Amino acid sequence: MRAFRFLLLFVLALGLAACGNSKFKTYRGPEVTQVQVHKGARKMYLLHDDKVLKEYDMALGFAPVGHKEFEGDGKTPEGVYYVNYKNPNSEYHLSLKISYPNPQDRAYASSMGKSPGGDIFIHGGPKKKIYQRDWTAGCVAVSDKEIERIYAMVKEGTPVYIFP
C-alpha cells in the first residue's frame, strides 16, 4: 500500500510538472485595449487605455521600411488593424492574426494588378536560429516566451496600431 501511494504521488507530481511547461498561460490583469507596434524603434507595446502594461523588442519583415503593398514584398503593414484570430497551432509557437489586408489595401493592390498578400501575424520565433534582425515575411516576431504572455493577454478584436 505504501509503494502504491508513493507511485501515485510520483505520477501526480510528473503530471503537475508537465502542466507547468504549457505554452498556454493565464492572465488576470487589466484588459489590453490596444497593441502598438513602432516599426522604427522595433518596439511593441500592450496598453490598457493610455497605460503601457508590457513592452517588447521585436523583429519585422525582411524589408521593413514602408507600408506593405503586395504579396512577397517583405514589408510589415502600417495602419490600424485588429487581432482577428488566435492560432494555438502556429508554425511559430503561438500567433495572433492581424486583419491585414483591409479594404483599402485590397483596392490598392488590385489597382496595380497584384495581390496584397495576407497571413500577417504577431508570432513567436522559428524553430531554427535566425541571424538577422528582420527576418519575417511581413509579420511581427517576438520570442516564444514572450508570445506566450502576449497570447494570454490579448483578445480577439483588440486594435493593433502599426506605426512607421
Give the helices and strands, then pairings:
Layout: H1 2-20, E1 34-38, E2 43-48, E3 51-57, E4 79-87, E5 95-98, H2 103-111, E6 121-123, E7 140-141, H3 144-153, E8 159-163
Parallel strand pairs: 1-8, 6-7
Antiparallel strand pairs: 1-2, 2-3, 4-5, 4-8, 5-6
What does this protein structure show overall?
The chain contains 3 helices and 8 strands; from the N terminus they run αβββββαββαβ. With 164 residues, it is α+β, with helices and mostly antiparallel strands. It has a single domain (2-163), classed as L,D-transpeptidase catalytic domain-like, CATH 2.40.440.10. It has an 8-stranded mixed sheet. Strand 2 and strand 3 form a beta hairpin. The chain is globular, with a radius of gyration of 19 Å.
The gist of it:
By secondary structure, this protein is of the alpha+beta class.
Average of the residue pLDDT scores: 88
Number of helices: 3
Shape: globular
As a percent range, the share of helical residues equals: 10-25%
- CATH architecture grouping: Beta Barrel
| Largest sheet descriptor | 8 strands, mixed
The first-to-last residue Cα distance is 67 Å
Defining key terms:
164 residues, alpha+beta, L,D-transpeptidase catalytic domain-like, 23% helix, disordered N terminus
